[in-house]
Amino acid sequence: MQGLLSICAPALPAHTDDWERRLLADPNLLGDIAFAIGGPFHVMYPPRVAVNINGFQRAFERAGVDGVVYFGKKANKAACVARACAENGAGVDVSSVGELNAALSQGVRGDELMVTGPAKSDDLLWLAVRHRALIAVDSLDELDRLAAFTTPAAAARVLLRVLPNGSASRFGMTAGELDRAISVIGASGTVGHESIRLQGFSFHLSGYDAVARAEQADKLITRCLDARTLGHPAGTISIGGGFGVDYVPASAWSEFSDHANGQWFHAGKSFDSYYPYHFPAPGPAMLTTVLEHNALAERLRDNDIRLAVEPGRALLDRAGSSVFRVQGSKTRHIDGHPYRLLTVDGTSLSLSEQWFDSEYLPDPILWPPRPGELTPTCVGAASCLESDMLSWRRIPLPRRAEVGDLLIYPNTAGYQMDSNESAFHELPIPPKVVLHDTGDRLRWTLDAG
Q: I need a labelling partner for 446 at 20 to 30 A (CA). Which of 173, 200, 236, 369 fits?
């Protein structure tokens, strides 16, 4: 056993919710869905999205801050997520005509949309104005194009996207560009684009640094106050997304990240970096940290400024999983020790972290549960590419996986399901199954998206 452990990565069990435990404990439900679908599929549980939305809303309430949550729709296309936003007081952040229409079709109202992204199409700008969406303007030329779709009776509501000092991002405007943009937007009694209303400013930072977000927001409070002196309403700041998610326990993450080595990976594979799968203050707790830093919440209250956030992954925490069927298996050896190399009926295009030259690390769950011996296992996909691996890491599965078994990758709703899906090899894109709690049991339907 000690030899097997030397070639096997330590366990990285994901945090789970009651709905997931019920799904796994049901002797028939997963197998029935797999039989009906006939291939890989994703499972969604919208009530968990509602819990996550409410967590951010409560963080605002505790701080006494006027805040609004916009779901970053690029993180998951499921219609049930947009419906959960409509039902729980969250808006949706969209970046395409398709995303805008999909949000509207699930009951999100036009003035609950934020439209983001660079160099938006004319069709997207026109629809955004028609639906009174809040538009995050990324450049001066976009501002000029936007003006062509507005009238005094149909004004555009805009935030100006700021390029933070020292950032090499291609998004946002420099200080000089912001000043120029403000000067050409009409304000009360001034000359300019009178059918554009400056509602405030936005920014987005890479990474998960709460302090950096708080300090950038503080700078934009000053920008809002300066814009008000020119007659602009300027009462909203959006700090974007980037709210961490806690996937696995701290001890498990430390054991992996402190000792990771090529012995744990098929073919000696290595990666330069991983998502921080343990995050000590995730989602709403990170928002609280932002609001508490240097009394940001007090400054927002004192100046009557609304704070907007655009979480994607964090609103999908524990809201979905991905299910693959074992289609074949082989035994391979390293240093004289055997391990299993599985092939499943999907591709890593449906588990997107691998396509960013990294690995999705929370352990898959082998179903159905049966007794057995610990078996180091890697998971390959049903394509002709050597690189198409769902798990290069040798996972300590509790028994040997057999053809027909299911592997459930947990907590994949945030970006994993949708970022890189493709009908490669003309394989169908895995559908999304929505679970419904009817009290005594879970039932399922196909997602409407």
A: 369
